[in-house]
Amino acid sequence: MTTPNFAPPAAPTSPPKPMAVFRAVYGLLLRSVATRGRIAGIGALGAIAVLTAVAKHSGNPYHSLDTGTSFASFLLISIVPVAVLVFGAAMLGDLIDDGSLVYLWLRPVPTWIHVVAAWAATVSITAPVVLIPVMLSTAILDTSSELMIGTLVGGLVAVAAYSGLFVVGGIRFRRALPWGLAYIMIWEGFIATAGKSAAKLAVRSYVSSVLARETGIHIKLANFTLASAIIVPLVATAVLLVYGSRRLAKSDVA
Amino acid sequence: MTTTGPVLPPEPMVAVDGVSKWFGDVVAVSDVTFSIGPGVTALLGPNGAGKSTLLRMLCGLTPPARGEVRILGVDPRTNLAVRSRIGIVPQQEAMFEALDAFGFVRLAGILHGVADPDAAARGALGLVELDPDEPRKVTTYSKGMKQRVKVAQALVNDPEVLFLDEPLTGLDPRQRNHLIDLFARLGAQGRCVLVSSHVLDEVERFGSRVLVVAQGRLAATGDFRAIRDLMDDHPHRIRVRTDRPRALAVELVAKPGVTAVELEPPSGTRAGGVVVETTDAGAFRRSVARSACTVHAALWEVTPLDDDLDSVFRYLVQQ
After folding, report:
1. Which of B60, B62, B115 sits opposite A12 (nearest CB)?
2. For FRET with B317, which of A116, A216, B59, B113 sits at 20 to 30 Å CA-CA?
3. From the CA of B199, how many Å to the nearest CA of chain A?
4. Same domain, B297 and B156
5. Given pLDDT bands bounded at 50, 70 and 90, which one contains residue A10?
């Protein structure tokens, strides 16, 4: 079937400005995922951490770097990844599951902007919601500067790295939440603690290494230097985000 | 919306060549080829025919398993720039819960690189008769209002090509008429508008150009009346109302091309008639008056009974 060929109206658009697009997508994703239910749930985890710290402190009121480091390490490898999973997997994962991703995907915007915006939004919401109670809990047990700095830097590395992992997990897997929980509990909770080789493939090893290097306290399988413990997870995050962008560009959308 | 003087593009605005798509063992679209240009074209087919899958391939949302899709001469799957010239009203109902209508459409404008997204959003919402200052989130809207927001976001970038998947779902009759007029205007401006529907009376309102899809295959393309004329294996059914139905029936049954004749009894104040099946509707229409004269019968009405889209569609999907 042929029809007369004559020109349609010229579309009055220029290529979208990357920063304007990034801000718009970042704002949208942040507002979409930062629901009261999620924040309340993660807030409750943080409250539990604080109450646990209070209970520990009341059992042994003398500040101890050992106790503080051990507790901070536990929090950084337990509630931080769970908090990041709850927000990160939903960032793009929810849009893929319900089909609304089409309103972002079918635009003249490279997918890396969506993925990086999702990562940034995850870091933005998770860091304050979970790191504040973690820092507070740690401070209840010991306020030494090495511990506080180690907890903060380790926490930021954890949030950044887990955000990359679970945002991309939300792109790669349907129902990324159970997959993420399996990763946290099975891979990082068991397999990665079995030996040094497996430990190199777990975020917890690097996060614990930051804490161990800052405080000088030994933590099992936390054997990386401070520089490696910070740089390797961030580089791995960048690689994951590149993979996630390519995956999103090639996916079947709704 | 603005228009510019005509310039001849080198190829059709939408070109599909040998496109197929399957999901596991299910063939959703099979070897479809067509091209369309400016104006409104209806994509017609029953539920599950492959219309939505075809539209998704046209937008680049999913790649064809085989074949090629070209929108304005390029592959929409790999060419980001062409997406700024396409608008789509997708089938799925989910929208961004955190946004109101203005925010939703404005976001689309920003992502398209529209120079003034605020003004473009207001303009697009005005076209679909929605208030840009409505503060409620889109998730609280009725189905019809959500559908109009979806149409507005498809128009915010002033697209040259529009794909509309069941755009009139949930609208009341007045809103339907308004949007049908809007789509017709957009087509008249030189845009390529492809509207998918399974509701025949909607499709007839869009115009006579159709692509009929059934069981993943393209069953027919073109003007639906012309398609009907080509359907030799389905004789045309024509009703003739007359004062002497029996006499006229005897005369008509002997005519070349007439395959069956049926008497219709009178009903109420309506006179009886003769329903004729003929393989050559044109020749029949030219000769029926002469036949009536031969038997001294008055001719009150000669009406085709299956020259509508409903009949064409039924015949095509039954094949």
Report:
1. B115
2. B59
3. 23
4. no
5. very low
**A8 located within any domain:** no
Own/partner contacts of B220-229, CB < 8 Å, gap of 24 or more, are B220/B312, B220/B316, B221/A1, B221/B34, B222/A1, B224/B309, B224/B312, B225/B307, B227/B312, B227/B316, B228/B306, B228/B307, B228/B311, B228/B312, B229/B281
Query: Hey, is A204 helix, strand or coil?
Result: helix
Its domain, for residue A73, covers: 19-250
Tell me the C-alpha distance between B222 and B212, whole Å.
Answer: 9
List of chain B residues whose C-beta atoms are within 8 Å of the C-beta of residue A32: 96-98
Q: Answer whether B279's CB lies under 8 Å from B237's CB.
A: no
Q: Verify that B254 and B205 share a domain, yes or no.
A: no
Task: Inspect the interface and report whether the beta carbons of B158 and A11 lie closer than 8 Å.
Answer: yes
Task: Please name the member of B13, B61, B84 whose beta carbon is closest to the beta carbon of A108.
Answer: B84
**Which tens digit of pLDDT belongs to each residue from B49-83?**
888 999 999 999 999 999 999 999 999 999 999 99
B1 within a domain of the structure (yes/no)? no
- Number of domains observed in the structure of chain B: 2
Q: Which residues make beta-bridge pairs with A220?
A: none
B317 assigned to some structural domain: no
Q: What is the CATH number of the domain that holds B133?
A: 3.40.50.300
User: What's the domain range around B162?
Assistant: 14-228
Q: Which amino acid is at A177?
A: L
Query: Does B26 reside within a domain?
Result: yes
Q: Contact A28/B96, CB-based, under 8 Å?
A: yes
Q: Which residues of A touch B99 (CB under 8 A)?
A: 28, 31
**Cα distance from A84 to chain B (closest Cα, Å)?**
20
**ipTM given for this complex:** 0.87
- Minimal Cβ distance to A1: which of B110, B111, B221: B221
Indicate if B224 and B245 belong to the same structural domain. Answer: no
